[in-house]
Amino acid sequence: MELEFRHLRVVRAVADAGTLTAAAAGLRMTQPSVTEALQRAERILGGPLFRRGAHGATPTPLGEVVTAHARAVLEALDRFGAAAGRTSPGAVRFGCTPSMLLASLSALVPEVLGAEAEVRTELDGVAHLELLADSRLEGALLAEFPEREYPLPDGVRRVAVAVEPMFVGLGDRHRLARCTEIDLADLAGETWGAASTARDHFGDHLAQACRRAGFDPDIRIMDATEALQAAEMGRAVLPVMPGSRARSGMAVVPLAGAPVRMATTLFRRAGGVLGPADAERLWAGLVEAQHQVVQRPPVYRAWLHRHPEWTTTPSRPVPRHDPLARG
Q1: How would you classify residue 56: left for phi > 0, otherwise alpha for psi between -120 and 50, otherwise beta?
Q2: Class of 167-253 per CATH?
């Protein structure tokens, strides 16, 4: 495992911004992706690069050395890129809703297409598809929800990457925080904090699942930071991606029967830079990352072990995937 340019960019961004949240915004990445990249850099280099506290992230002695070298290397890389700009391919533009696969997407695009990925992240998947149809993006990796798929614009193709159960995030003092799995009905009366938009229909999917369980949910739309703080304080429960890493003050617990689900879908523009063969290679890399990276947390691994009937990813590129289909 070697240090890569993307690791150096994350180190420089954290040093410049002073917090992982601000660094993620500047890099147009999710905070979990920045955290994962920083942790990988620290494992490679053999020690912590930043001290994280109430006032932000400050470099350790090792972090100061690495940051100085990161600046020098990246500045040289920028100069090289400017000099070679007339003959080298431009970055391939992708859209992405918050995803545990975002870092893998950024790493796979250069391998598949021989060009850096320029990834635009935001919650509104419809906006990504509009840009894709308008030739302002070459591809998009988006979260969708059962019976609430995005309508396909003309000329846009889709392939299923994964279908996952969504878990719930609870304050670690919540009465259900130490359960192996929770019946959705046991969360009746709770406030749900959700980072969502009107056009992704996640709120509709969650509400429908709760009604099937016998209650109408109280869903409050919050940004990610507010939602996490509300959960830690016991004021809300959160629907979370099953690959979410453990966080101090919060427990991640599966829902029995997987009543709330999320699909990750790769979209491309027909006739664009991402042709059928390259799209299949990119899909295969994302499927591998799903199993090797996203499904690594112990809670997720344990759930999959208890539910061998659930097949997260399709065996071949198809537009849609049923995780419980046999054969």
Answers
A1: left
A2: alpha beta
